[in-house]
Each structure stands twice: as structure tokens, then as C-alpha cells.
Specification:
Strand content: 25-35%
Largest sheet: 3 strands, antiparallel
Bound molecules: zinc ion
Order of helices and strands: EEE
Number of strands: 3
Strand order of the largest sheet: 1-2-3
Oligomer: single chain
Length: 62
């Protein structure tokens, strides 16, 4: 009997994995920087485990 050495797990939502510490991220931390008046805020997404920056974006929220 052949045993296939993997299993398939069905998930509704896929947890992203930090590329640095390879932990599954159920949440990411964000930090906003900037005045946010005309230019919008810079939003920094970072890993809650190792604090490495995962990405940056812009938020137009005041
Ligand atoms: Zn990490």
C-alpha cells in the first residue's frame, strides 16, 4: 500500500506566511506615518513576530 506523504487541508481563508520568520500570520501590524493631510498616510505593514516590514502602502483615510 502506497502512502502518500502529504495531506490536503481545505481552508476558507489562507493565512499568509511571513517571508522572514516563516510564521503563519493571523494578523499583521500596521503603523501609519505621515501627516495625512494632502499626501495621505504611509502605512507600513509588519510582522508581529519579527517586526520585519512586509510592505508599505498608502492610506487616504484622514
Ligand atoms: Zn516575521
Amino acid at each position: 500500500m502506497n502512502k502518500i506523504d502529504f495531506k490536503v487541508t481545505t481552508k476558507e481563508d489562507i493565512a499568509p506566511i511571513c517571508p522572514f520568520c516563516e510564521k503563519e500570520l493571523e494578523e499583521v501590524y500596521i503603523k501609519t506615518k505621515g501627516l495625512g493631510l494632502l499626501t495621505g498616510k504611509n502605512v507600513v505593514y509588519f510582522c508581529p513576530y519579527c517586526s520585519k516590514v512586509l510592505g508599505v502602502g498608502q492610506s487616504r483615510m484622514a
